[in-house]
Write a structure and sequence with these properties.
233 residues, alpha/beta, 2 domains, five-stranded antiparallel beta sheet, 10 strands
């Protein structure tokens, strides 16, 4: 990827100031005022002049991104419930859109998957770009077969309900696929699971992959507790 260096240029995005190290397509490599190395969307990243409000278009973009129809209709029909995982992702939006990853874990029905779908929905409304949502066990996720199907224009990849019951080789292949496909492009990955990050990490035998995964998710893992909201009357 061709980059152009701007070692002394400063840029302000929102209320934050960054020193630009290099620019590459849709991402800028910067250092913030606290010396942290980040990748950010440039100030002139082509957000839509007006957010998409047409329900038909939003529904199509969400469905094309693989979001289950149940979530699509909920996103389009009523205000989102401000759950802990949803608020967590929205508070961490800038970090996530700079290419960091989030790992949400906890029992079923606590809002993890919906929070990820909502994050993608808000992104689609602003930028009109696709994401990719896959429910891991249902689709019997096989990374090597899946590579050819990944849409290159997708900015956000959601891997829902990652379980440890899959063989160790498949777990390793899945993480390797995510890092290979999304690490260098600085795109966002959201992972949900029913097990803690530590337990998940123990199932990953490749220390090199584990180190990279820990780096990508540092400060962005969340335990979600509570009752199953699906059972509420």
């Amino acid at each position: 990827m061709k980059t152009t260096s701007f070692p002394s240029e400063e840029v302000k995005v929102g209320d934050k100031t960054y020193r630009v190290l290099s620019k590459a397509q849709d991402w800028w490599h910067v250092v913030d005022t606290e010396g942290r190395d980040l990748w950010i969307r440039p100030p002139d990243f082509p957000a839509l002049s007006e957010e998409i409000k047409d329900t038909y278009r939003l529904r199509k973009l969400l469905m094309d991104s693989g979001v289950p129809s149940l979530f699509v209709e909920e996103l389009l029909s009523k205000p989102a419930r401000k759950t802990k995982p949803l608020l967590f992702l929205m508070r961490k939006k800038d970090l996530l859109l700079s290419g960091r990853w989030a790992y949400l874990w906890g029992p079923p029905g606590t809002g993890k998957t919906f929070a990820c779908a909502y994050f993608l929905y808000r992104y689609i409304r602003k930028y009109g770009r696709l994401g990719y949502f896959i429910h891991c066990p249902t689709h019997d996720f096989k990374a090597q077969e899946f590579k050819s199907e990944v849409k290159k224009q997708t900015d956000i990849f959601i891997l829902d309900d990652l379980i440890l019951e899959i063989p160790s080789w498949q777990l390793t292949e899945t993480v390797a696929f995510l890092l290979e496909t999304y690490n260098s492009s600085r795109k966002t990955v959201l992972i949900t699971s029913n097990v803690s990050f530590e337990e998940f990490a123990r199932g990953l035998k490749d220390e090199r992959l584990l180190s990279r995964l820990v780096q990508k998710t540092r400060g962005l893992t969340l335990e979600v507790k509570g009752k199953d909201m699906r059972l509420e009357v």
